[in-house]
Amino acid sequence: MGVIAGFMHFLSTIITLLAVSYFGILSMKKVQTSQDFSVGSRKLNRYQISGSILGTVVGGASTIGTAQLAFQRGFNAMWFTLGSAAACLLLGFLIAGPLQRAQVDTIPEFLSQSYGEKAGFAASIITSFAIFIHVIGQILSSTAIFTSMFHVSTAIALLVTIGFILSYIFYGGFLGTSRIGIIKTFLLYFALIMSGMAVYLHFNGVEGMLHAFPDRQWFNLFSGGIFAGAAQGFSMVIGIVSTQTYLQAMFAGKDEKESQKGAFIAALLIPPVGLLSTVIGMYMRVAHPETIPKQALIVFILKYLHPVVGGVAIAALIISVLGTASGLILGIATMITRDIYSKKINSCADDRQQLAFFRYCILGISVISGCFVWGNADSLILEWGFLSMALRGTTVFIPLLGVIFYKKRISAEGGLKAILVAPILALMWGIYGIKTVDPLYVGVLASIGIMMGYSVKEKKKSFPAS
């Protein structure tokens, strides 16, 4: 029976993965121009936009990572998804409109309109590097899942991972990530709802869960401290609002309202993923305390769901990780193609050449990422991975808000200096600073100080003392 169940898990997982890849490849039919590839020619509706956001933001951290933390801390694990939802609300309420009206494809392009081309070029280089670090982490996660679940070698797991990522975005670009995101959302909700129902039955309802955790700290979002909890959510807001992949979805809407509504739909759908993953992690703490925390969600699926349903659930988790990597790679490729290739390397490139370069860039980033993983770069990622969020946030967040809310008061020179200096300070703080103070906050405060200082300086020049 165990062998049959294992085979059914394997078969169900593989069929689901291949079917989703097929839909990703099919999106190529709608791609005729580089605008189709990068932002869907700005014709996407709210559901396609939300699918793109969910396809990237809901990854391994929202599911496997949340269940792992819930196994250890309870409801405090929900801050990742709550922060992600808050970021989507910020996108919808304040940022979608200005980005839509700018009619550009990348955040560096948007920033360069106010701070100059040098600022846009610097932002493109720094954020591409920061996102690349995150991509490697996602590929490492996917490789680990394939090796542990299917007992294949690292080489095969890595090739399969890269192959699936390319099937998602190489052909359809942004339209591919949007389509995969919508499919992934349905699969993930199906898997987590089935799992949640099983947990509810095994706990004998909410009362049984409360009885299993008499210490109410397990249900306290701020069990790690109010400041620590709020800081986790705030970090997610800064990270998402500063990442090309998510803002690219705002550029892609057919109008301002569709972009806003797409962000709002994503904000509505993200928290339930965190809640269900949290409840599953807590159940595993009670029923199987011997479980390795990071395996809590996967072990639950294998133990408690029907093999066919479990296979779909495992596939949904794998797609979550692969979808995040795919969206991030597309974001890097968009910045490199629009901000570097078409402006600095080949300014005469026609649309066909840009479309081809998009795909070469995606292939190159995927292969280079794979080489990092193959070269056993685990220690590098563990040491530097935490700086990915800090580098993105300190480079983009404050200059972006400056353009949106204080356009007439900001200094172009101040924006350039903030983009260059703040991430360096964050990097140095991460290496030499106080470990209890997140380098993200050091960089953000430095960015604010630089922007304000140069704005005051230019204002004094405009109104010299008599």
From TrEMBL:
How is it placed in the membrane, per its record?
Multi-pass membrane protein
Annotated localization: Membrane
PROSITE patterns in alphabetical order: NA_SOLUT_SYMP_3
What are the protein's UniProt keywords? Membrane, Transmembrane, Transmembrane helix, Transport
One annotated GO molecular function: transmembrane transporter activity
Note the Pfam families from the entry.
SSF (PF00474)
Q: Transmembrane region positions?
A: 6-28, 49-71, 77-99, 119-140, 152-174, 186-203, 218-241, 262-284, 304-336, 357-375, 381-406, 418-434, 440-456
Q: Name a single GO cellular component.
A: plasma membrane
Principal localization reads membrane
InterPro entries assigned to the protein according to its UniProt record, in alphabetical order: Na/Glc_symporter_sf, Na/solute_symporter, Sodium:Solute_Symporter
Spell out the CDD domains in the cross-references: SLC5sbd
Family recorded in the similarity comment = Belongs to the sodium:solute symporter (SSF) (TC 2.A.21) family.
Protein name as it appears in the record: Solute:Na+ symporter, SSS family
